[in-house]
Amino acid sequence: MTVIPLTHILILSSLLFIIGFVGVVVRRNTLFMLMSLEVMLNAVGIAFIGAGSVWQEADGQIMFMLILTLAAAEVAVGLALLIRMQRRYRTLDIDVLNQMKG
Amino acid sequence: MSRFASIEGLFYLAAIIAIVASLKVVTGKNTVHALLYLVISLLAVAVCFYLMGAPFAAGLEVIVYAGAILVLFVFAVMMFGLGIDEMHNAPQSKGLSLWAGPAFLGSLLLVELIFVIDNSELALQLNNQVVDAKQVGILLYGPYLLAVEISSFLLLAGLVAGYHYAKPEHRGGRL
Question: Can you give the pTM of this predicted structure?
Fold first, then answer.
């Protein structure tokens, strides 16, 4: 049982999640959107670890490890897509991709 | 013991560092500086994990997130050749001010970690509530074995997709 109250852990987690979400929605540079996604995944990890440590169970850490795997795969695919986009359009602006043709 | 020097106080300090660094990531203009702040944010979260009694997860956060995923980001940024972007958004010679922020936040985290390890009372308090790697491993290769297999498939899919998308278009034809 950790001494840190669960509500405070969840407040931290949701604050970080909101920051990341605002970043994904507001930014037009796709690289920054990927970084904001990382912040969001991290925030979810905090919630899992916090819950796991409050109830003294290892399940939270296992979920965190699965999120870690997910983040690694997501970043690999996302960055490869960005490399392709940079090669094709010479920019990372997301608004360039709104044409749905080609 | 004062209120600040408790586990809670240190947790709040690390949480504030994480939030500030994340805000700097989201609002940043220069990609490399934003990545620097992202590393600080991840390290702050790792300190939070340590203080919550999950040292194994804290180690994983530093090794995998800050060590591997962020290096992947840095590689990609260097590959993009965003030279023009960097010139626009980064003043050429502002001296200290560019890396002073991340360095300050990082050294604050270091001081905090050394304080926790050095203070035997806090270390004892942390040891009582720890969920160690052994429990995680037993659970991971017991009830969660299927999830491990599925995540290995996920990594394989990421590998194939990364190779396919990043391959030059003229070479190799259709996949």
Answer: 0.88
